[in-house]
Design goal:
Elements (H helix, E strand, L loop, with lengths): L1 H23 L26 E2 L6 E2 L4 E3 L11 E7 L22 E11 L4 E13 L2 E9 L6 E3 L2 H6 L1 E8 L5 E8 L2 H7 L1 E2 L2 E2 L6 H4 L2 E4 L2 E4 H7 L23 H12 L55 H7 L17 H13 L6
Antiparallel strand pairs: 1-2, 3-4, 4-5, 5-6, 6-7, 7-8, 9-10, 11-12, 13-14
Helix pairs in contact: 6-8
Length: 363
């Protein structure tokens, strides 16, 4: 009896030991994200569990993949952190260099806007997090506004999402200039105005041409498209993508830099079947090899007087309507109309350099 007891005990120990070894050898993949497509958008950003630890640190959970386009949309000098999450078992597909990746149902694109030089103490403050969620009926917007304690971001609904709102903010630019602005939290219609194509909401920045660049991930530097493939988020992509560049990179030709800048800041409206398709210019990176599409020697739809008739007057930024609009903060004149309330000095200077480098004569 005593012998049988010890034999049984040894057997049980061996059984549990084998189970432990087997479990240690199995890789359990879980995103840890809380996502029920019929229940989203949730009332609080934290409910999704996109981030681990303190929410304000924006430390991504497993399978929440950071990304960054080669050139960034200007939003009153706000900094941005962007992420992609997709449910298990589905993949995005490649359509074209200049077309947004074809994301499956359940995809969430996450973008937080923040400043790290908020005055008077150069503190970091996150203002908003915008989600685009791919449902079976198409993309929807979910706007989350952060509280002053930076502990939570709450879904903006009702009147606030219909009319939008503003937050007063004082921050310091890289050149140490102190700016006081009324940062704009967009309404749903404002989101739709920029993200509209063929009368449907679509993402802007996640085009292969924009993310065919390297990113420093926790595990090392890697091409962002390859990272999506490795994570099981993208089926494949070609090796010959004609890509945009970082417009701040002065080692690149000024025309490529400007075309990249206009692509990310302006092309989503100035394209066929988009908000400004009635305008004379087409500013997608794939189309601006043609100077006419950029407005060179083209009469403006709305001239600003006898000295401001052409969109681009070669060699003279002071006689170019595009330069005038980028320099304006007046809602009736500025370009882009939405997404900024102040002048982007670096963008204006880049445009000026390019215009003044042109030496052709208009007919």
């Amino acid at each position: 009896m005593r012998k049988n007891y010890f034999l049984s005990l040894i057997f049980l120990l061996m059984l549990f030991s084998c189970k432990d070894e087997k479990m240690e050898g199995v890789e359990v993949e879980s995103s840890f994200v809380n996502f029920e497509i019929n229940a989203v958008p949730y009332a609080k950003l934290s409910t999704y569990a996109f981030f681990t630890g303190e929410l304000k640190n924006l430390t991504p959970s497993s399978k929440v993949i950071p990304y960054e386009p080669a050139s960034s949309l200007f939003t009153d000098y706000a900094l941005k952190k962007r992420f992609i999450w997709m449910p298990q078992g589905v993949k995005a597909t490649f359509d074209a260099d200049d077309k947004t990746l074809n994301f499956p149902v359940g995809t969430v694109l996450i973008k937080s806007f923040y400043y790290n030089t908020v005055q008077p103490n150069n503190t970091t403050k996150i203002l908003e997090t915008r989600l685009m969620i791919r449902k079976s009926t198409g993309w929807i917007f979910a706007e989350y506004m952060w509280n002053d304690e930076q502990t939570e971001a709450n879904l903006v609904t009702g009147t606030d999402f219909t009319s939008g709102s503003s937050k007063n903010l004082t921050f310091k630019k890289e050149n140490n200039e102190v700016m006081n602005i009324d940062y704009r939290i967009p309404s749903e219609s404002e989101c739709y105005a920029c993200h509209k194509l063929d009368n449907k909401p679509v993402p802007i920045g996640v085009k292969p041409q924009n993310i065919n660049t390297t990113y420093s991930y926790e595990g090392g530097v890697k091409n962002q498209l390859q990272k999506l493939v490795d994570e099981g988020y993208l089926l494949s992509y070609p090796s010959n993508i004609v890509s945009t560049v970082n417009y701040k990179d002065t080692s690149k030709p000024v025309d490529i830099r400007l075309r990249s800048y206009l692509d990310i800041n302006c092309a989503h409206c100035h394209q066929q079947n988009a908000r400004c398709d009635y305008r004379a210019i087409r500013l997608s990176f794939s189309q601006t090899t043609n100077l006419t599409n950029m407005g060179v020697c083209v009469m403006a739809d709305e001239p600003q007087g006898p000295s401001l008739e052409k969109i681009i007057t070669p060699g003279n930024h002071n006689k170019s309507v595009m330069s005038f609009r980028l320099n304006s903060v007046d809602e009736s004149n500025r370009m882009p109309l939405l997404g900024r309330t102040i002048v982007h000095d670096e963008g204006v200077e880049l445009l000026k350099q390019w215009i003044n480098s042109l030496n052709q004569n208009c007919p």
